[in-house]
Amino acid sequence: MPAGRVLLAVLAVLAALLGAVWVAPANAAAAYALKVSAAPDRSAPRSLAGGTLSGRVYVFLAPTTDVRRVAFYLDDPKRTHKARTVDTSAPFDLVGGTADAALPYATTALKDGKHTLTAVLTLTGGTSKVVSATFTAKNPVPAPKATAAKAGNGRVTITWASGGGVTTGFDIYRSTTRTIRYTKPLNAKLLPRTASSYVDRTVKNGKRYYYVVRAISPKHHATSGAKVSARPLVPPKVPTEVSTLSGDGTVEVSWHD
Fold this sequence. Notes:
Elements: H1 3-17, E1 33-37, E2 46-47, E3 52-53, E4 56-62, E5 67-74, E6 85-87, E7 105-106, E8 113-123, E9 128-137, E10 145-152, E11 155-161, E12 169-175, E13 191-192, E14 197-200, E15 209-217, E16 220-224, E17 228-230, E18 240-246, E19 251-256
Parallel strand pairs: 3-9
Antiparallel strand pairs: 1-2, 1-4, 4-7, 5-6, 5-8, 8-9, 10-11, 11-14, 12-13, 12-15, 15-16, 15-17, 18-19
């Protein structure tokens, strides 16, 4: 049995022997924890600790018994910086809100990976309590859509549509085999998020090339679109000395290749 519970039990026994009625402080038994819900009404909550979060979520403290104030610190377990949020009324939410609806927290603002949320509780009795939870943020970049490659004379034009979301730009990768390694993109600089095409002018006619468009975000895992291929060819020369000769219900056409 934990030492705190032993002490409470001893105090209760002593009170009984003395014929007194002893009531344990309400906050002594409160098991405070950080919770997360997918709904603004905080319904169906689960523990924030060990969870994987994506998109918009609602983070709060539960229960609120004997809590007067909560200061939230994100990725600052030693609280060396100013609190991200300070809530002075229950229910105590990471972003804020009303009793009926919490305000959402956009996890897309976080880099994919592990994070820690620390809450410093000021109880009605004047004491403080620290509650912490480690969770994982996961918001991969939506993959590019409708990727296509069109061959030309000494060029290949790659087109695609953005998947949106947390996409900040695109990189184009090329290979002369079906295996494409994401080492160095064709484009010298990251293509803007509004880009939807790229022209590769470094190809050789007659050789097949394979391409992949990758959606990029500095905080999230990159995602690849479909693999496409094209083989640029030299177009045939225009025929010369084209002439026609009319006949009885016929026309004869002649040319030089």
